[in-house]
Amino acid sequence: MRAAILKAYNSDLVIETVADPLCEADGVVLRVLACGICRSDWHGWVGEHPKVKPGAIPGHEYCGEVVEAGPLAKWRKGDRVIAPFILACGQCPDCQAGLSNICKSQRVPGFGEPGAYAEYISVPHAHNLARLPEAISPVLAAGLGCRVTTAWHALTGRAELRAGEWLAVHGTGGIGLSALILGRALGARVVVVDVVPEKLSHALALGAEAAVDARAGDVAARIVEVTGGGAHVSIEALGIEATANASIDCLRTLGRHVQVGLPVGHTARMEINMNGVYMKQLALFGTRGMPAWKYPSLLDLITRGVVDMTPLIARRVPLSGASAELRAFNGPMPPGVAVIDDFAA
C-alpha cells in the first residue's frame, strides 16, 4: 500500500509502498476513505511528541471501509465506519465504567503504531468503531474523529456547558471552530479569540457574538467586558501559556476552564495564574478525546441537522499534499481544516 512516512522531523513526509497491515483478532483492516490533518500530527512531525519516531505513519482522524475483520470483531467486509482516535481495550475498570478515553491500555494510530496517512489501516479493538451514517460524507467524518469529538466531550462531559452561558474559545483552529459550532448548538453565547483576522471573521459568520484579536492585547479584560463579568466556560485550544492564562483570567467567579490544547514538548510546563484560580474559585479541567459510547449520539445530532459541522472542512488534499499542510501549522493558519481524500496522488 502507499503510505506517507516520517523519515526526519520537520521534513516532508516520504510516500512509499509498504506492506499491507495485518488484521488483529478483535480488529479490522480498513481501506481509508479520508483522514484529517490535525495539529496533534504536527506535534509529532516536529519531534515534540514522545511517541512519534522516524519511520512512523501519521494520521489518527480517519474513516474507512472494512476490507477484513478479525474473528472477534462484529464488523463485516463492506461496512463503513468512523473511528475515535483512542482505541480502548474495553475490558479494564475504566472502560467498564464508560471512561474509555482514559483507558490505560489504549492504542492510538499515528502515535506509537501506524496511522491513517495510508491506503489501509489496521484498527485493533474494533468495538470502538461506529457505523458511518449514509448522510455523512467520508471527508466530513474524517474531520470528526479528534477535533469534534474532543470539543463535544469538553463541553458536555467536562464543563457541562448550559444554555445561556458565555463560552470563550481561545484559538479558532479545528478544536476552536468545533467548540464554537457545538457551543452554539447547546445554546451558549460564544466569544472567540485568535490572531488571524480572516479566522475571526469566519467565526463571526458561524455565529460567534464577539471576536477578540489577541494581537491588540488585554484579551481577558476585553472578554470580561463583552460578557458582562467574564465567561462561564473557557476553552483553551492551542496548548500554550499565553492562551492558557488568558482562558483562566477571562472567567467569572466559579467559572470553568477546560484545557483542550495539547501542552507537549517545550509547552508541557507553564507558569499559570494560580492566584486567579484561587480567588475566583475556578474549576480547571483537562480533557482528551471522548468515550467511544458517545459517538452514536453525536452522529445523530449531525444527521438530524441539529448541528452542521460542514463549515469545519476547508481543504481536501491528496496524500502527497499532507506535508504542506503540516508545515502550515508552523505559523498562523487559514480558517478550517484539511482532509486527505485521495491516497493515489
UniProtKB/TrEMBL annotation:
Name the UniProt record assigns to this protein: Alcohol dehydrogenase catalytic domain-containing protein
Keywords, alphabetical: Metal-binding, Oxidoreductase, Zinc
PROSITE patterns recorded: ADH_ZINC (PS00059)
Spans through the membrane: none
Family: Belongs to the zinc-containing alcohol dehydrogenase family.
PANTHER family tied to this protein: ALCOHOL DEHYDROGENASE-RELATED (PTHR43401:SF5), L-THREONINE 3-DEHYDROGENASE (PTHR43401)
Domain Enoyl reductase (ER) stretches: 8-340
Any GO MF annotation of the entry: oxidoreductase activity, acting on the CH-OH group of donors, NAD or NADP as acceptor
Cofactor(s) it depends on: Zn(2+)
InterPro entries noted in UniProt: ADH-like_C, ADH-like_N, ADH_Zn_CS, ER, GroES-like_sf, NAD(P)-bd_dom_sf, Zn_alcohol_dh
